[in-house]
Amino acid sequence: MIKDEEQSWGSFILEMAILLAIVLCVRFYVFQFFRVSGPSMCPTLNQLDGECERGKGEFVFVNEFLYHFIKDPERGEVVVFRPPTEKSYYIKRVIGVPGDTITINDGKVYLTNDKYDEFELPETYLSAENQGRTITQQKVFTVPEDHVLLFGDNRNQSLDARQCFKSCYGDLNENTPFVHEDKVKGRAEFVIWPFWTARWIEQAFQDL
After folding, report:
1. What percent of the chain has pLDDT over 90?
2. Catalytic residue numbers?
3. What is the CATH number of the domain that holds 104?
4. From CA 87, how far away is CA 67, in angstroms rounded?
5. What are the distances in angstroms from CA 130 to CA 42, 69, 85, 104?
6. Could you read off the pLDDT of 41-68 as tens digits, one per residue?
């Protein structure tokens, strides 16, 4: 039995309630595990044995505590989010934060804000096949307050803000390529499985 024979039922119920509250708090506000599916974040994630995994692949540890209690998502971080129109979670990289203007020119990504003017982002995490090949119909993205702009690292095989500028990530009655910060659940910190691929996930642009 879980309950001690000498323990009162009131004390036992209180302990179970506290334990349940802790478990729920950890689950919804501290961390979760997320399984990456598809090739949209290769080679950062889901590149196994030199090939992009097209189905379900690596498990990552997602830090939810960070965005709930410490800070907002920052440019360059790999995040897990859920669009209002979807039941599934997605994983992408933050390219722009509120106040940024992101411009795509000749396949390269440029940042303009209070600090930078047409500064080319050093996207070292892109593979050779994706360097200088960010293709999009919409060339300029000005990120509004409380939103972020998200691209996949595998630009040639990622469904992200570049294709979703009509409604994919917005509320049901809103057309926008941007994701509200409230929909970003956490930062992907490290790969935990398969064990032989365990590693920290690169959070880029930390010095910008």
Report:
1. 58
2. 40, 92
3. 2.10.109.10
4. 20
5. 10, 35, 29, 14
6. 999 999 988 889 888 889 999 999 999 8
